[in-house]
Design goal:
- The chain is built from 11 helices and no strands.
- The chain is mostly helical.
- The protein is globular and about 75 Å long.
- It starts with a helix and ends with a helix.
- The model is unreliable at 1-23 and 25-40 (pLDDT under 50).
């Protein structure tokens, strides 16, 4: 609300020229462009998953490979057990990703504030952190946190804590740049108008700058969550029972790698598409609230 009032209060009065519409528009101009089909929507997602499953089944029909989808047959006890074993990894994958993205957003916002600070050491510390953690491969960082950190600090972290911390440290470097760019994109006149109205620096940030910046950086934040969701599969190397780890263990007992990893692909595909759909809905809702 304050952001809207500031825009109206600081607007410079004057004439605004608007192009007059064509009184006789052509037939082509009256045609509405066709909207692309959004695969992230519910029916589109179900159709995509069904089509992918049928395609995988059809690919093996004319070849020499004997597909073993019976290991996931819900009509058998073994099939239901295998499906349940993989499905239970979804919740751990989501929990790990949500924990990591929450930590990385909080840390990234602090790093962005330090980067925009007038204090030189804070700016340098933020820049060094961002450059260092963006350069370290996530898998290397994960192994160091899980195996190396206990040797140095004596702090032994579990697989979930080590995975969440590694993902947060790596992603926060990217989040910091996203927040910094978003905060800098807000017009300087907005801050000056807030100071004119007597708002403190905290209230200016909370009610004027941040609400405008979050609408700009929301797509980038959604992309970072998708990135964290995909990179969470690397935590399987330290024994966390998430989706990829469970698929690996199931492959040891069933030895049907093509079927098991094909289902794993579909699970990650469904999670990513649902996440993208949710981010787009949030973007549309926020854009309607500003009109």
């Amino acid at each position: 609300m304050v952001g809207r009032q500031l825009t109206a209060a600081t607007a410079t009065p004057g004439c605004r020229c608007v192009a007059a519409p064509d009184p006789n528009p052509s037939t082509d101009a009256r045609r509405r462009p066709m909207r692309p089909i959004a695969l992230g929507r519910g029916p589109g997602l179900a159709t995509l998953l069904l089509a992918t499953a049928l395609l995988l089944a059809g690919c093996g029909a004319g070849g020499d490979y004997n597909w073993g989808w019976y290991i996931f047959d819900p009509g058998t006890t073994k099939g239901r057990s295998n499906l349940g074993f993989l499905a239970n990894g979804v919740w751990l994958t989501l929990s790990l990703s949500l924990t990591a993205i929450t930590l990385s957003v909080a840390l990234g916002l602090l790093l962005a504030a330090a980067a925009l600070s007038s204090v030189g050491p804070l700016r340098w510390a933020s820049r060094i952190y961002v450059e260092c953690f963006r350069a370290i491969p996530l898998l290397v960082l994960l192994l160091w946190v899980y195996y190396g950190l206990p040797v140095i600090s004596g702090l032994q972290l579990g697989a979930f804590a080590a995975g969440a911390l590694s993902l947060a440290l790596s992603d926060s470097a990217f989040e910091a740049e996203v927040f910094r760019a978003g905060l800098q994109s807000v017009a300087k006149g907005q801050r000056e108008a807030a100071e004119t109205l007597g708002l403190s620096r905290w209230k200016t940030f909370r009610y004027v700058v941040f609400p405008q910046a979050i609408r700009i950086i929301l797509p980038a934040l959604g992309n970072q969550f998708v990135y964290v969701l995909k990179m969470s599969s690397l935590v399987s190397v330290i024994g966390l029972q998430e989706l990829t780890r469970r698929a690996n263990e199931l492959n040891v007992t069933e030895y049907r790698p093509l079927e098991i990893y094909s289902l794993l692909v579909l699970e990650y595909l469904a999670l990513i598409l649902l996440t993208s759909w949710g981010v787009r809905r949030l973007e549309r809702r926020m854009s309607r609230s500003t009109r």
